[in-house]
Amino acid sequence: MSPRSFLVPPVDTVTYGPGAFDEVSNRIAQIGGVRVMVILSGSLAGGPVEKALHERLGSRVVGVYSRTRQHVPRSSVLEAARIARDNRADCVMSVGGGTPIDCAKAVALALSAEIRQPEDFERHRVRFTYPSTYEVPSIDGDVVPHVAVPTTLSGGEHTGLCGVTNDATRSKDAYTSSKLQPRAVVLDPWVTAGTPGWLWAASGMRAVDHAVEGILSARHMPMTDALGSGALRLLTENLPGSTADPHDQHARTQCLLGTWLSIFGLTNVGVGLSHGIGHQLAAEFDMIHGVTSAIMLPLVMEFTKVQTLPRLRVVAEAMGVDTRELTDSAAADAAISAVRDLVALLGVPNRISAAGGTRDELPKIADHVMGDAAVAACPRRVTRDDVLELLHAAW
Q1: Does domain 197-394 have CATH number 2.30.110.10?
Q2: Smaller CB count within 10 Å for the chain: N or C?
Q3: What pLDDT shows up at residue 2?
Q4: For residues 170-190, b (16+ Cβ closer than 10 Å) or e, as one string?
Q5: Strand order across the 61-65 sheet
Q6: pLDDT tens digits, residue range 146-191?
Q7: Is the confidence at residue 1, as pLDDT, over 80?
Q8: Once rounded to an integer, what is the mean pLDDT over residues 41-45?
Q9: Residue 180 three-state SS
Q10: What CDD domains does its record include (predicted)?
Q11: Chain centroid to CA 80: how far?
Q12: Which CATH architecture has domain 13-191?
């Protein structure tokens, strides 16, 4: 067995729990920020969270952008980057779900790499050829630092990876560098209280997807198995209650922590086919990623069942199933059922048709999926026909 490494994302601090939002001023000072460009969820604009942000940062806020469209189209990044340049921003802060967090990373990239036109993104996107060929452009020079304050459970605050959608082709491209990792993360349940229950639940399924596919990854390792299992325990136990009661600060904090644990699989061993399909489904049909996870994860678990039997037992146990009397196959089926049961309990759509997709686009999506780097971690060899069959099964 060749040597392997476990990578810890280069974040300076993660501050969590009730009252954590009061620390945003200190976190900005910690990264040397003087002129802050805020990328804000549109639903938070003008509300108590934005008001509290201005109270804590005052004149250091030199720009606020709250018009990022879902899945971060290039046009939104360019618009936000222009505002940041015009106001000489020296750091960015994201407050919201995965969309503003990814937009803030992309703005930081655009500022450092002189991305000013849509075609400029082409120089920096990750290129992947199945099964394992990557081209990952480096980022020269410094990148403006980023403080992230999430309001959902997408987990983007814990990675140096972001997805940006090509407005023309509607394919979603990946951009990655340790320099894009937020330097500080603030996890406060109060900030999440205004997140609609359906969005909290769906984003929670995204975190479940991170954890499960990390455990099932072809490159899995004991450390990510353990962290993924811990994530699944926290999420399974706290997602239903925190969805029903957005003011349950304990349950919401536990979900935020579960999301943090879930992300180490993505950053160390990769995720897999559920994510690869989900990226492209979401971009094509303007779905949120949590919905694509609810749709695809159980089907992909079935698709890779033979290759992942022992690890599916780990998933089942982490989700509260007593597997002591079960065969490996029965434990695997129990894991898949546990995911389906959680989707049903949370009320997240579990079919492409129910989530607003159209069947005619599925072949094009299958083409895009085969160029998605997430597919490389799938423990079973994948063909375009396999992807298309899974898409039809998900219809």
Answers
A1: no
A2: N
A3: 82
A4: bbbbbbbbebbbbbbbbbbbb
A5: 13-16, 184-187, 146-150, 91-96, 36-40, 61-65
A6: 999 999 999 999 999 999 999 999 989 999 999 999 999 999 999 9
A7: no
A8: 96
A9: helix
A10: MAR-like (cd08192)
A11: 21
A12: 3-Layer(aba) Sandwich (3.40)
